[in-house]
Amino acid sequence: LWGYNGQSPGPTIEAVEGDKVRIFVTNRLPENTAVHWHGQLVPNGMDGVGGLTQPHIPPGKTFVYEFILQKSGTFMYHPHSDEMVQMAMGMMGFFVVHPRDPAFRRVDRDFVFLLNAFDIEAGSYVPKVNTMTDFNLWCWNSRVFPGIDPLVVRQGDRVRVRFGNLTMTNHPIHMHGYDFKVSCTDGGWVPEAAAWPEVSVDCAVGQMRAFDFVADRPGDWAIHCHKSHHTMNAMGHSVRT
């Protein structure tokens, strides 16, 4: 894999609504790259589309992104330069912008994960970068169950689970043992009076979602994509209360 800062997904960037952020991107890949701040409202020159809003970042060079965070919510970052190859190699990450008011929609535990997929032959470590849909590893944070840490919460905690989909298909995410309320979408926070109850929430390609629940049912509860071939390959997780 490639990734950011030597990992896939890249580090989760956390900041506060209204902050000015400055991000240095040094390209150590064997090809050009650029970074798009998916869902963020940024100046055109900071949007990270190589060849359109900025020159591509050549190997060995650094580009500095700087912008003010216009709204809180759940966002992602990924290349917009040779996207299919670079994302197939694991280049993606999360960007969480917290509300300026720390009491707004406050939770005790806040989890994030990216849905991604790879096509890797047995015995190999290098993904096939030309695969369009026939992936054999459906992952959460570039890992498959059971090689994923559980989401550990205490009884009575108010919990938020945020996720984004950078695969090539949609994923209906289902959690056992609970119903929950969808609290945030790509466009922003859902007003509390309008947050709708679910036990599964679909996440289309390029979308982000967040849901909240109160951990009042002890046990080890499964949370997984409800497409059976994804669950078997092995897009699953667990919530330990």
UniProtKB/TrEMBL annotation:
InterPro entries: Cu-oxidase-like_N, Cu-oxidase_C, Cu-oxidase_fam, Cu_oxidase_Cu_BS, Cupredoxin. Keywords: Copper, Metal-binding, Oxidoreductase. GO terms for molecular function: copper ion binding; oxidoreductase activity. PROSITE patterns: MULTICOPPER_OXIDASE2 (PS00080). It holds the Pfam family Cu-oxidase_3. Signal peptide: none annotated. The keyword Oxidoreductase applies. Residues 2-101, 125-240 form the Plastocyanin-like domain. PANTHER family: FI03373P-RELATED, MULTI-COPPER OXIDASE. This is Copper oxidase. It comes from Alsobacter soli.
